[in-house]
Amino acid sequence: MADAARRLTALAEEVLGAPLPVRIRAWDHSEAGPPHTPVLVLRHRRALHRLLWKPGELGLARAWVAGDLDIEGDLYEALDLMAGLLWERGPAAQRQSKAAAALKALRDPAVRSAARTLIGLAGPALPPAPPREEARRVWRGPLHTLRRDKEAISHHYDVGNDFYELVLGPSMVYSCAYWERPPAEGGTLEDAQRAKLDLVCRKLALRPGQRLLDVGCGWGSMVLHAAREYGVRAVGITLSQEQAAYARKRVADAGLTDQVEIRVQDYREIADGPYDAISSIGMAEHVGSARYAEYAADLHALLKPGGRLLNHQIARRPEPDEEAYHVDEFIDRYVFPDGELAPVGRTVAQLEEAGFEVRDVEAIREHYALTLRGWVANLEAHWKQAVRLTSPGRARVWRLYMAASALSFERNRIGVNQVLAVRTPEDGTSGMRLRSRDWLG
């Protein structure tokens, strides 16, 4: 068969109800579709087989991670062009209806028969095994228990500190940077991450001798910066053994073991409050909607009256029908198992319901797009080494996840916000200056 690409293109356009914006190259080396565009490469018939078994995003994700599906050309352009088929046309209800129509077409017996003929399937066939990088649901029980959260965090973070060094760079900060100058004007990822850490410290009004709790401390960058630059005594907690070991070495190398403690601990297990300030940077996405009220209440209880919380968190856009919201399958299976995003309004409301007074909300989504593009550039520049340190599939997961996320921030499909909240005492003295944004300089 020397015309698989032409037949694939016709089948895809029938399913999608729109012309394909990218070119296709099939396993038989045939090509079809518009010239001078990125090329969607189906290296193996198994890519289509995966889509037949799991129509939609999960089937495509498995094909990508396994290497059955690839893109030649500009990855960002290809993702942007293909996203426009389903997710960016018209209002939300229309976008959802297009996605639903495409999935329905993939399940149509005639379409499935044509696809099976194209890949040479006759009679019953077993589904292709998922790539080994997919999260194995070995845990049971309700979401966001102590054990389940620890295993979910391990899936994402315990993949090798050397790998994360390649992607994140020397800062080892895995959250949105704060770009005072964009890359086009000479700004660097390292400068932007340092600026973010310092911005958090200034928003928290840290002073020498105060106690800081950093929830989800990662590789220790925030506690190190706060101790070194602001003289605080800091406790960083993480559920990742690999992160904790790395952070403890950094603390020892910096000569700060008398100021900084790193624990493998869940925020629900902390019993040595109160603290003067709490930072939670890129951690609350793991909490889950069912546990968020508990999270907010626990942090409120751990703060002294007058203490500040800086909650740095990714947010999704509100859905017309919130009951219909579902977690992204690719992210859930391959990146952040059990992770959930909430609209910023809900986050603010739940913090206030826990007793906090929210004093400032800063939206910085464009900063995250620049950060993610920096991480993708690091990964691509060290691709062979990244593959050796993890696996080809794991490297492909991170490349797709970060590139697609950069576009999501750029297109305002998701955002990220720093919420500054105070445990205001009963007498109402918040400790905030009249010019509350004095950290802006």
UniProtKB/TrEMBL annotation:
Its EC number is 2.1.1.-. SMART domains: PKS_MT. Residues 163-407 form the Polyketide synthase-like methyltransferase domain. Transmembrane segments: none annotated. Keywords: Lipid metabolism, Methyltransferase, S-adenosyl-L-methionine, Transferase. The keyword Glycoprotein does not apply. One of its GO terms (molecular function) is methyltransferase activity. One of its GO terms (biological process) is methylation. InterPro entries: CFA/CMAS, CMAS, MeTfrase_dom, SAM-dependent_MTases_sf. PANTHER family: CYCLOPROPANE-FATTY-ACYL-PHOSPHOLIPID SYNTHASE. Belongs to the CFA/CMAS family. This is Cyclopropane-fatty-acyl-phospholipid synthase family protein. It comes from Streptomyces lonegramiae.
